[in-house]
Design goal:
This protein is mostly beta strands and 305 residues long. The protein contains four helices and 19 strands. Strand 14 and strand 15 form a beta hairpin. The longest helix has 13 residues.
Length: 305
C-alpha cells in the first residue's frame, strides 16, 4: 500500500485512474502478472499506439513497471503492476524536506538466528534447501524475495541519514508479513516481536499462514502448499509510543532510543521462545505476496536550532 501526499502524486494517480481503459489494463496486467505490450493491446482491443499512450500515463503515476526480456524479434517490453492499494492524504502536514525514505530488500539482513521450518527464496528459485538455516549465509540471499522461520530472529541495518543538527521524531516501517506453519494454515497465530537497537518495542499477533488463494505477485512456480501472501503492516514509533496500524502496542517512544546522527539503527523481527504463540514468521518482499515491496522505511526529523 502506498500513501500519496504530494500534489504531483495525487494528480498523477487521479489522471491515471480516471480512464476506464487504463483501469482495464491494470486489471489485465495484475491477472497475468507479466504481459507484453502487444498482448496487452490485443486483450484491450486497442492499437499498439494507444497502449503506448496509456502505458506512459500509468508509468508517470508509478503504477506499473516495464521489464525488458528476450523475444523472437529482439527484446520486448513486459508490464508488471507495482501497487494496487493507496491512501490519499490530502491534509498531510509532513515537510518532505525533513524526512528521508528508503527500502530494504528482505534478503539484505545483517544478522539472523532461525530455526526450521525455515527457508529463503528469490523470484526464480528456492535458495539452497528448505529447513536448512545454513543457506541464510548463501551470497544469493541478497536477491531474496521471501524468507520464513518458525522461531528466532532476522535483523536489518537501517540507513541513518540524519545530520548532526537533526532530532529524530518518528520512524515508520511498512512490510508484508505473516505466520509460518508447515504447509498452509489460515488459523495459525504467531506473536511477532519488533526491536530497534536491541530495545523491544512491542509485538503483533499474526492470525495465520495464508495460501488458500494465490498472492497477486507470487511466482507461478511457487508450491501451492506453501504460504502465498501476508498482511501489510505499518509499524510506527514516535513520542506518543509504538503503534501497529494506528493501534498502540507499547509505551516505548522514539526519544527513549536516543538515536543520533552517528548511531547505527537496527530493526529486528523475531519470534522468541518466550512468546505465547510460537507460530513463525514469513516476510514477503518484491515479487511475492500481495504487495510488490520490500521493507519500506521513513524517518521524520526536526532541525535543532
Amino acid at each position: 500500500m502506498r500513501t500519496l501526499r504530494t500534489e504531483y502524486e495525487i494528480e498523477a494517480i487521479c489522471k491515471a485512474l480516471i480512464s476506464p481503459t487504463r483501469l482495464q489494463m491494470l486489471r489485465i496486467i495484475a491477472g497475468k502478472r507479466n504481459i507484453n505490450l502487444n498482448e496487452l493491446a490485443e486483450a484491450c482491443h486497442i492499437t499498439n499506439g494507444a497502449v503506448t499512450h496509456h502505458i506512459k500515463i500509468l508509468q508517470e503515476a508509478n503504477l506499473i513497471e516495464l521489464v525488458y526480456s528476450p523475444g523472437i524479434r529482439g527484446s520486448q517490453k513486459n508490464c508488471t503492476i507495482k501497487d494496487y492499494q493507496f491512501v490519499i492524504d490530502v491534509l498531510s502536514a509532513n515537510d518532505t524536506t525533513k524526512m528521508y525514505e528508503t527500502e530494504i530488500p528482505v534478503g539484505t539482513f545483517s544478522r539472523y538466528k532461525v530455526y526450521p521450518t525455515c527457508g529463503i527464496a528469490s523470484t526464480s528459485k528456492v535458495i539452497g534447501e528448505v529447513d536448512s538455516p545454513r543457506y541464510f549465509d548463501d551470497p544469493c540471499v541478497r536477491d531474496a524475495g521471501i524468507l520464513w522461520f518458525t522461531k528466532g530472529f532476522i535483523e536489518y541495518r537501517i540507513p541513518n541519514y540524519l545530520e548532526s543538527n537533526h532530532i529524530l521524531k518518528e520512524l515508520q516501517f511498512s512490510f508484508e508479513i505473516g505466520s509460518e506453519a508447515p504447509g498452509i494454515c489460515e488459523n495459525w497465530p504467531s506473536d511477532i516481536y519488533f526491536s530497534i537497537n536491541e530495545t523491544q518495542i512491542g509485538y503483533w499477533t499474526s492470525p495465520g499462514d495464508f495460501g488458500e488463494t494465490r498472492g497477486l505477485f507470487t511466482p507461478d512456480w511457487w508450491d501451492k502448499q506453501w504460504n502465498s501472501y501476508g498482511l501489510l503492516k505499518l509499524l510506527v514509533i514516535n513520542d506518543q509510543g509504538t503503534f501497529i496500524d494506528g493501534g498502540k502496542i507499547s509505551d516505548v517512544t522514539i526519544s527513549s532510543l536516543h538515536i543520533k546522527a552517528e548511531d547505527t539503527i537496527t530493526l529486528q523481527i523475531s519470534v522468541p521462545e518466550t512468546a505465547s504463540n510460537i507460530g513463525g514468521c514469513t516476510i514477503f518482499g518484491k515479487g511475492f505476496g500481495n504487495y510488490n515491496q520490500d521493507i519500506k522505511v521513513r524517518a521524520l526529523f526536526i532541525e535543532n536550532e
